[in-house]
């Protein structure tokens, strides 16, 4: 009987002997290194400098000032403030949209602007009153936020707008101080007039209290992608094990079913049908957990379920197509397509206007951007088509079509070439599965 110590030494010796084979290390080392490098570059590259990468962030500028213009001037002070706000903003960082108040409300409600600056109708008259005994309150500029577009995007717009409004206040203050000096005002009065405008911040388009400060749309869309991605891979592995094309190991238990003769195309069709059926359950459970148990704010529930099902199904079908085309490395490829490239280009946590151009390019077709826009439109913007929902539906349809065409084109090609999944090998050693 072999002593336990001797058996352990033999096990270690055998393991180290196998580990010395260079080819055994090559593929895992290269793949792990590439994944670590690319994930770091992709994720960190998109978030490091949002203000430095800011490009044309849409913000509404609404001037309702009714004047009349101050003596000796042709413009109302509201028009002057509007010009000053645009001039005070670094070129190319903000897209100031000069809108009416009704247009502003519409664009806030459809997620087309991240915020707004509202100049009130009595702005000129309230500023002029500061130099008279009729002065009762300081003039007010109102900054409106849009939390439905995400806390960071709304915060960026708010900060930029507040700074621009403050600069406009200082500019008007210099004009008032000059006039006050000419009229013999006291030093205290001139100091008070130096920054005469109060800038207030309000929510322009409110969302529910259980909306994660505008992040529930992103996390819900992420769950749709993850359930489609993980579920697709589970179905892929389960079907392969059930058909006898891979071993099934759970802990110390190992089984290998008899191989079922089936073509690649038939196998892909089976996996896609199962994906379509199982996604009904996963989508329902996802909504029950998020809305029914955790209390996430949500409206348009039937539409949300249908959209969620189609979105998760599109991801699942894409996973099956990629796995069928790439085989063993399919999971890595689909991870990059649906997770690694998709998350930093989603525009849900950091606006696409504040990321490098590479990510804005990815956002044109990467699924997370399309799905998060659709979910956000349903959750925060009353399911308006122009809030991103129409584009999301179109991209889901395109995604399903591409998955079907690509997947079945590849499997039919492999089948016609006779590239079967299991082929008897003449070099198989005794005891090795061919």
UniProtKB/TrEMBL annotation:
Protein name: DUF3533 domain-containing protein
Protein's membrane topology: Multi-pass membrane protein
UniProt xrefs under Pfam families: DUF3533
Main location: membrane
UniProt keyword list: Cell membrane, Membrane, Transmembrane, Transmembrane helix
Family: Belongs to the ABC-2 integral membrane protein family.
Transmembrane intervals: 24-48, 217-235, 272-294, 306-326, 333-354, 392-411
Entry-linked InterPro entries: DUF3533, T7SS_ABC-Transporter
PANTHER family found in the cross-reference section: DOXORUBICIN RESISTANCE ABC TRANSPORTER PERMEASE PROTEIN DRRB (PTHR43077:SF8), TRANSPORT PERMEASE YVFS-RELATED (PTHR43077)
